Amino acid sequence: MKTSSTVLLAALTAFTLACGYSSKATMAAQPGSMPAISALAPNSMTSRGAAFVLTVNGSNFSSNGTINWNGMAQTTTFVSANQLTATIAASDIATPATVAVTVTNPATSSMAVGMYGSGGTLAETSSAMDFTVN
User: Fold this and answer.
1) Cα separation, 121 vs 65, whole angstroms
2) Which of 46, 54, 62, 121 could bridge to 105 as Cys pair (CB 3.0-4.6 Å)?
3) Are the CB atoms for 76 and 62 separated by under 8 Å?
4) Residue-wise pLDDT tens digits, 86-112
């Protein structure tokens, strides 16, 4: 009887491990909400001017979305899902240039939902819109 109990226990252990019961997989991160820029206000400034507030209008902006000025994240204020603002320093418009402005919605971390959890979402960055420093 001891032998059959040992064999049965070994078989159940092997079956349990073979089914992957010992580890739970999580889902991969899913694409996030893609922001889109429709307009910049203002869309140009004169070089060597004073600092100013840039308003970015568009759609799908996250409450934690960030305005990027020439690839550098700026301290951003969320106004609505269609509008963000950031103060651009005078030093950023010191010389004439064309500056790329984008918006990034950050990634979200995994939320434990259901048996295997969720992978959260990926960060998404809008297409660039040009800002002109004359």
Assistant:
1) 14
2) 62
3) no
4) 999 999 999 999 999 999 999 887 655
